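Morning run. Coffee first, then this:
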Amino acid sequence: MTKDEGFSPSIKYLALGDSYTIGEGVLEDETWPIQLAACLSGDFGLEVSTTIIATTGWRTDNLLNAINIAQLKESFDLVSLLIGVNNQYQNRSIDQYEEEFEALLKTAIRLAKGDKEKVFVVSIPDHGFTPYGLKNKEKISKEIDLFNEVNKRISDQYKVKYVNITPISRQGIGDLELVAADGLHPSGKMYTLWVHEIAQQIKVK
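And here it is:
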């Protein structure tokens, strides 16, 4: 994690997503956005104001609608985007995902005061490597890879930082402490591993 000169002692962080961002099945302080905020605070002595727009079950279209309803100002110093697992799970088309993910990424950049360096995308984790998804692991993994190919390509197109946590998510079967009690979502311990990976790659301004 690096910082620019002229660094402010306080930042506004916006986390956009679905169940993984809201932290289904874990306590609030175990969610990865809150852990990341704590990491920023601990490393830099920052005051981090965190806004989370995320709900379990949301697809890309749901997130777009929620952002429009929230009428957020273009005032954030850091914006994260993690979305797509429910597009995959609900058998929505890759084409729809591609169109809506690009719209979301453009919105994220706009909300970050137009600065793409303040935005980062997190890859979709693989729920095939959980007790719940194990029986369909091959199908799920193949589809998650396809969706991640799309969001990685679009992130690269817009020159936005892309953090690939999918390999970490695939440790869930080998260590069930990385899976929440529902047998599907990540645990706080898993999210800590994500934050370590994210913190190594992002720039805070």
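The beta strands are 2-3, 10-17, 47-54, 78-81, 119-122, 161-163, 203-204. Good start to the day.
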